[in-house]
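User: Second chain of the day. Same drill as before.
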Amino acid sequence: MRDSAIVLTRLSRRFGATPAVTDVSVEIPAGEIFGLLGHNGAGKTTTVNMLTTLLPPTSGDAVVGGKSIIADAAAVRSLIGYLPENVQFYDNLTLVENLQFFGRLSGLRRPDARIADVLRFLDFTGHDSQRLGTFSKGMRQRVGIAQAILHAPAVLFLDEPTSGLDPEGVRTLRETIVRLNKELGLTVFMNTHLLSEVTRTCTSIGILNQGRLVHHDTVASTLAAYPEEQSLEEIFFQLERAGTP
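Assistant: Same format as last time:
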């Protein structure tokens, strides 16, 4: 049995009197590509913000890479990479200059060798000296992944990674995520609302509805539990309705 890379135990977050995430408990084995699904406002980004230590939980806890997000937040940050939905760079700097800056922020004293390895892996050949302001949205997302994996994390968090991308950009990013998982062994936790991408990318899924986890299983088992003609979209709505309080 594989060790768990991420364990949530009754993880909750309230904003004033409003619950955003309520008593979410789930274990994600190392080596998974886990997709967290849900409508806007379901609590997906709040969950990721807690797991990446950007937002403290109101109650409960989570362990990422064997470290508590409450008791060992600094250790968690050293073990994870994070790509937010709207990644920000210095557009007047080149690709390499941006990564040098962020590499030093990550604690890499001599980041150039690691940057070269990451750029080769992500197929950025010929773009080293190109300014980020000239990059497409899809290329910027891949630069965001480069930044997120510079320090060789064990777990990678992606918040709506394909948002705003054209079909070619979606395909390229999907292939990149799968390679990160298969070739580098990263556990990937991604929020997404593109259900079509889940079946192509994720190995397991969770569904949030009004801040509560209403489903968690492998993609294969989820699809197998329903008639073959049902799409994941139809299954998603059925599971979501079943979990509505």
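The chain has nine helices and ten strands.

User: Great, on to the next one.
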